[in-house]
Structure to design on (199 residues):
């Protein structure tokens, strides 16, 4: 089978978990999807999602472990779909191929369409948080002596960038000539203007 949300083969567990969503009554299904989409739009609230899923499982008499598997699988599908920028219609057809009923797939397609801007904004913000510049130190220098007479009197700039890699910070060192520095500065200003435009 060919899916829009991935070009890889889909694991059997994802198909099983997606099919298991058919067991929920419409009201419970809609409540669960609302919780999942709220989490996807605002992932900072992950602890809130966990507590909401626990209370959902208790209210509906669903096993917490089984519910966790279903939620994990459907979030995986949604995140892959978001990376591929698929349309609500393509998501609906993929969910039907995964074994979800047409009515439930339509409901998810509608949620996908109405939350697409928030989902995209979250994806972009998460992408831009990787390799975030934390600090920058610099100093100018002039070459005072060298075995190559042409290098004497040249200006240079030593730059130390501190970058947040997500789990740790990393120091990156560069030495630039003055023209290279001005090119680098111009690129940084363009990047800042682009970020300002999107925020």
């Amino acid at each position: 089978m060919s899916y829009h949300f991935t070009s890889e083969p889909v694991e059997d567990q994802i198909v099983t978990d997606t099919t298991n969503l058919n067991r929920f009554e419409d009201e419970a299904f809609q409540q669960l999807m609302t919780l999942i989409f709220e989490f996807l739009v605002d992932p900072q609230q992950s602890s809130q999602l966990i507590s909401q899923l626990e209370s959902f499982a208790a209210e509906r008499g669903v096993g917490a472990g089984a519910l966790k598997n279903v939620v994990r699988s459907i979030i995986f599908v949604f995140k892959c779909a978001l990376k591929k920028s698929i349309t609500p219609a393509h998501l609906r057809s993929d969910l039907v191929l995964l074994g979800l009923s047409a009515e439930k797939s339509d409901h998810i397609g509608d949620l996908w369409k109405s939350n697409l801007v928030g989902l995209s904004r979250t994806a972009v913000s998460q992408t831009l948080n990787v390799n975030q510049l934390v600090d920058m130190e610099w100093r100018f220098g002039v070459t005072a002596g060298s075995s190559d007479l042409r290098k004497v009197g040249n200006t240079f700039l030593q730059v130390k960038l501190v970058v947040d890699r997500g789990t740790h910070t990393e120091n990156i060192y560069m030495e630039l000539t003055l023209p290279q520095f001005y090119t680098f500065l111009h690129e940084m200003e363009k990047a800042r203007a682009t970020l300002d435009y999107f925020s």
Strands lie at 132-142, 155-164, 169-177.
